[in-house]
Specification:
This is ADP-ribose pyrophosphatase YjhB, NUDIX family. InterPro entries: Nudix_hydrolase, NUDIX_hydrolase-like_dom_sf, NUDIX_hydrolase_CS, NUDIX_hydrolase_dom. By secondary structure, the chain is an alpha+beta fold. It is 18% helix and 46% strand.
Length: 160
C-alpha cells in the first residue's frame, strides 16, 4: 500500500496593537500573510511562530485556529518540472508581542497593513480567497478545498 504524501504548512493573520495586519512580500508569490512548511519534529504552532519570526522579525502569541485549506491538486515546483504533493494548510490568528520588522531571504518587504487593504495587495486568486477566510473568522473554522492550475474551488465548509 502506498501512503499519500502531503506537505503541511502554516500561515495566518497577525495583528498589532493598532489593528494592522502583518504582510510579507515573497520574491515569487508576491504579498501574502506569513507562513511556511512545518519541519520534522515541530508542532504546527511552533512552526507558525518560527516562520513569522524568520520572515518578519516579529514574535507572536497565537489565539485561534481560523481555517484549514487543502490544495488537492498536484502541482509543480518553480522549476516547472518537479512535482509538489498535495498541501494542507492550518491558518491561525494571533497578536504581535515583540520584535522589529525585518526582511529575510523569503521576504522582499514586510509591512503592517490596514485590514481593509490586505486583499488588494494579493495577486494570486487562491491566496486572496484563503486570506479572506482568515480575515473573516467569526468563531467558525473555515475548511477550504481547492486546486491550482487551473484554480478551482472544490468546496467551502464552516466547522463549529
Amino acid at each position: 500500500m502506498n501512503f499519500p504524501t502531503h506537505i503541511v504548512t502554516v500561515g495566518g493573520i497577525i495583528e498589532n496593537d493598532r489593528g494592522k495586519i502583518l504582510m510579507v512580500k515573497h520574491p515569487v508569490r508576491g504579498w501574502e500573510v506569513p507562513g511556511g512548511q512545518v519541519e520534522v519534529g515541530e508542532t504546527v504552532t511552533e512552526a507558525f511562530k518560527r516562520e513569522v519570526k524568520e520572515e518578519t522579525g516579529i514574535d507572536i502569541e497565537i489565539s485561534n485556529l481560523v481555517s484549514v485549506s487543502s490544495n488537492i491538486g498536484i502541482g509543480t515546483q518553480y522549476d516547472g518540472v518537479s512535482p509538489i504533493p498535495t498541501i494542507v494548510t492550518l491558518a491561525f490568528a494571533g497578536k504581535a508581542v515583540s520584535g522589529e520588522l525585518t526582511t529575510s531571504e523569503e521576504s522582499l518587504e514586510v509591512s503592517w497593513v490596514d485590514r481593509n487593504q490586505v486583499l488588494d495587495l494579493i495577486d494570486e486568486d487562491f491566496t486572496r480567497d484563503r486570506t479572506r477566510y482568515m480575515l473573516n473568522y467569526d468563531g467558525k473554522i473555515t475548511y477550504f478545498v481547492f486546486s491550482r492550475n487551473p484554480y478551482v474551488i472544490h468546496g467551502v465548509q464552516y466547522l463549529q
